[in-house]
Amino acid sequence: VCVCVSAIDCVVGSWGPWSSCTSPCGVGSTERSRQVSVPPRNGGMPCPDLKQRRGCFGNNAICSTAKEVAKILPDSFKRNFKDPWRRPHMLMKEEKASYCVHLRVKQASAACKLKLWSNQLVRERLVCAECQSDAMSKSDRCGGDGIKSTRTFWAAASVPGCHGSWVRESSSEGCRCPPSSVLFV
């Protein structure tokens, strides 16, 4: 008596959607997958690839923000930070509430060691940067105030050659940074 067992080939479903690009700005990758509907049995054809990956170029709305370089000064400037050129439109501007951004330094150039205040900008140090009314652009934010979990760049306005990168961790409205923090300018 012959017991015939027929081979069953693998059957897969259709491809799912492509994932979003792993990089919101610049080169990254995206992938999609599919599921096995019927697994192969009795020597049937094995399953084809279940995942596909391809390159992508993220061009999110935040990308222009990612290119901004924050210009910073020590908070000792905030005691009476006034516009040095006394531009008339600056005097008319209403005070807007300041906000704080906490950023983790990822890189700092050697020149930062030259001044006491910029010497604190060292790798992995968490820095509080305050955005005051005087420094805000038309959009009520300070240029270069960072993007959550994305590396952005800064330059110390009063220390030539002192610059680096940082990653924004959090921000809070209507707050003041503690002494020996930095200010956006």
Written overview of the protein:
This protein has 185 residues and is mainly beta. It has 2 domains: 11-59, TSP-1 type 1 repeat; 65-78 and 96-184, no CATH class. The protein contains 2 helices and 10 strands, in the order ββββαβαβββββ. The chain has a 6-stranded mixed barrel. A two-stranded antiparallel sheet has the order 1-3. A hairpin with a 6-residue loop joins strand 8 and strand 9. The longest helix is centred in the middle third of the chain and has 5 residues, at 63-67. The N and C termini lie far apart (90 Å). The model is unreliable at 79-83 (pLDDT under 50). It comes from Seriola lalandi dorsalis. InterPro entries: SBSPO (IPR039942), SBSPON_C (IPR056801), TSP1_rpt (IPR000884), TSP1_rpt_sf (IPR036383), TSP1_spondin_dom (IPR044004). Residues 92-178 form the SBSPON-like C-terminal domain.
Features:
Somatomedin-B and thrombospondin type-1 domain-containing protein-like; TSP-1 type 1 repeat; two-stranded antiparallel sheet; 2 domains; 185 residues; mainly beta
Biggest β-sheet, characterized?
Answer: 6 strands, mixed, barrel
Q: How many helix segments? A: 2
Biggest sheet strand line-up? 5-8-9-6-7-10
Q: How helical, in percent, are the residues? A: under 10%
Report the order of strands and helices. EEEEHEHEEEEE
Number of domains: 2
Strand content: 35-45%
Mean residue pLDDT: 85
Q: What overall form do the CA principal axes indicate?
A: elongated
Whole-angstrom Rg: 27 Å
Taking pLDDT < 50 over at least 5 consecutive residues as the criterion, the unreliable ranges are 79-83
Number of strands: 10
Distance between the termini: 90 Å
- The assigned structural class equals mainly beta
